[in-house]
Amino acid sequence: MVSYKELGLVNTREMFRKAMEGKYAIPAFNFNNMEQMQAIIQACVETRSPVILQVSSGARKYANATLLRYMAQGAVEYARELGCEIPICLHLDHGDTFELCVSCIESGFSSVMIDGSHHPYEDNVALTKKVVEYAHRHDVTVEGELGVLAGIEDDVVAAKSVYTSPDQVEDFLHKTGVDSLAISIGTSHGANKFRPEQCTRDANGILVPPPLRFDILEEIEKRIPGFPIVLHGASSVPQDKVATINRYGGAVKDAVGIPEEQLRRAATSAVCKINIDSDGRLAMTAAIREVFSLKPAEFDPRKYLDPARTSLRELYKHKTTHVLGSADRV
Ligand code: G3H
Ligand code: 13P
Ligand code: ZN
Question: To pair with 118 at 20 to 30 A between CA atoms, which of 33, 43, 157, 231?
Answer without folding.
Answer: 33
